[in-house]
Amino acid sequence: MRPSSRIQATLTVVTALLSASVHALPASRPGPALEAVQACATKSPGAACEFSHQTRALVGMCEAHEGEALACRPAPPSRPLSRKQTPEE
């Protein structure tokens, strides 16, 4: 086997191994909770929705993200007013 053929064969094997290991890794971000998907099963994108997950009741809007099913995306939590924003009494 010529040296260039050996290098090409080695690179092919390394590429295949790296590709297989990347596919074996868990997703970096899990998909939406089943309850969130079920909450939007009969709704359109942008529709208001609500669902319970673990011990919390969540309210949000139906949205679909890259390749995912339409799911209820909870509204961000409201932030408490800072001291400067506190209404005068």
Defining traits:
3-stranded antiparallel beta sheet, alpha+beta
Structure, explained:
This protein has 89 residues and is an alpha+beta fold. 31% of the residues lie in helices and 20% in strands. The chain is built from two helices and three strands; from the N terminus they run ααβββ. It has helices at residues 3-24, 34-39, and strands at 48-53, 56-63, 71-74. A three-stranded antiparallel β-sheet has the order 1-2-3. The longest helix is centred in the first third of the chain and has 22 residues, at 3-24. The N and C termini lie far apart (87 Å). The model is unreliable at 16-23 (pLDDT under 50).
Summarize the structure.
With 89 residues, the chain is α+β, with helices and mostly antiparallel strands. It is built from two helices and three strands. It starts with a helix and ends in a 15-residue tail after the last strand.
Q: What is the makeup of the main sheet? A: 3 strands, antiparallel
Query: Proportion of β residues?
Result: 15-25%
Q: Indicate the percent of residues in helices.
A: 25-40%
Looking at the structure, what is the overall shape?
Answer: elongated
Which H/E pattern describes the elements? HHEEE
Question: Structural class, from secondary structure content?
Answer: alpha+beta
Low-confidence spans: 16-23
What is the number of strand segments? 3
- Distinct helical segment count: 2
In round numbers, the mean pLDDT is: 76
Query: What distance separates the N and C termini?
Result: 87 Å
Over the alpha carbons, how many angstroms does the gyration radius reach? 24 Å
Neighbour order of strands in the largest sheet: 1-2-3
